[in-house]
Amino acid sequence: MTRAVVILLALIALAFPLSLLAGRVWVDPWSTPNAAAILAELRLPRSLLALIIGAGLGASGAAMQGYLRNPLADPGLFGIAPGAALGAVASLWFGFAAAPYLLPVFALAGAAGAMALLSLIAGRTLSGTGGIALFTLAGMMIASLAGALTSFAISLAPNAFAMSEIVTWLMGALTDRSWREVWIALPLTLAGIGCLAMAARDLDALVLGDGAARSLGMETRRMQGWLIAGVGLTVGSGVAVAGIVGFVGLIVPHLVRPLTDRRPSSVMLPSALAGALLVLVADCVCRVLPLVTELRLGIALSLVGAPFFLWLLLRMRLGRPGGLA
After folding, report:
1. Among 53, 255, 85, 254, which Cα is nearest to 170's?
2. Is the dihedral of CA 231, 129, 209, 68 positive or negative?
3. How far apart are CA 70 and CA 77, in angstroms?
4. pLDDT (0 to 100) of residue 124
5. Are the beta carbons of 270 and 259 closer than 8 angstroms?
6. Helices marked H in the chain — which ranges?
7. Residue 131: its pLDDT value, please?
8. CA-to-CA distance for 186 and 253, rounded, in angstroms?
9. Positive or negative CA dihedral for 251, 254, 260, 264?
């Protein structure tokens, strides 16, 4: 177990109990009425869901940056999150929001559609730099198409209530989530992280360059398949239960990379833990801020992520790239 993993596990162990108590009304287990029910049915599933979603986004961000060899890469580049969002918006558009499982099912179907389209395009690419460029452009095209269709659906919303529901959901939040969302996201996220771990060895080889990686036995299509499945499951399940939560996959690999040997396989697990910690803390901040309505989690992370992204750009302009190897 590396130093980064030990540090992050310790921080999560400190933050998790506080997250159970934090809120507009702090829960005192010994004096708050119905404290056990509040903790078991409201706070515990919400905190667990924050850990699950953050872990998936962090691991997928580390894998994406390792694959593209670009410190500015984010899981959103694959177009899977916008695809999942489009599926969820379709369920809201058709009025299925009241059905307990239809919104996540639609969102996962949207993510699966984006994964299938990306596989169809990437499966025809050749190995090497050109393949990575085409893979990236295909992801950006899918993201752009899904975003345009989402905007189109919003503009044609059947009524103001549906439009409000769609816009609110797209902001991303863990408000009013229950054990149902935990049981949806947990197995899919674990399976996704497992798929990303299967690609870790090839990602390490890719750091040495395309030619060296192929001489070491790297198979581009196999690695792309694991990456598509991993990012699709982790990001798609997160969007299905919480909406759009951005910038986690961009931020956390940069924070943990100096604590590792910088190989993609070494960065993946610490990034998953750091992503879990970041989303957990951000959700706690959203809960305790004294605002009229609770700050949406997606907005809070964007307020942090956008300045961080600008800082990365300024570092690169000064000739100090993120350093993936």
Report:
1. 85
2. negative
3. 12
4. 58
5. yes
6. 3-21, 35-38, 44-68, 80-93, 102-122, 129-155, 160-170, 179-198, 200-206, 210-215, 220-242, 248-256, 264-288, 297-317
7. 64
8. 22
9. positive
Give Cβ neighbours of residue 245 (< 8 Å, ≥ 6 apart).
53, 57, 172, 238, 239, 279, 297, 298, 301
User: What is the tens place of the pLDDT at every residue in 3-22?
Assistant: 889 999 999 999 999 999 88
Q: What is the pLDDT of residues 103-158, one digit of tens each?
A: 888 888 888 888 788 777 766 554 555 566 777 788 888 888 888 998 888 888 87
CB neighbour list of residue 223: distance below 8 Å, 6 or more residues apart: 67, 199, 202, 203, 206
Token code pair at residue 80: 């899977």
Residue type, 307: P
Concatenated DSSP letters of 249-280: HHHHHHHHGGGS---HHHHHHHHHHHHHHHHH
CB burial readout 95-132, b (16+ within 10 A) else e = eebeeeebbbbbbbbbbbbbbebbbebbeebebeeebb
Q: Nearest CA to 247 among 95, 113, 81?
A: 81
Q: At CB < 8 A and 24+ separation, what contacts does 303-306 make?
A: 304/247, 304/251, 305/246, 305/247, 305/248, 305/250, 305/251, 306/247
Predicted local confidence at residue 318, as pLDDT: 73
- Tell me the one-letter amino acid at 294: E
Given a contact cutoff of 8 angstroms between Cβ atoms, the answer to whether 79 and 217 are in contact is: no
C-alpha 319/C-alpha 302 separation (Å) is 25
Residues of the chain under the 70 pLDDT cut: 1, 77, 97-98, 122-132, 319-325
What's the rounded Cα separation, in Å, for the pair 117 and 87?
14
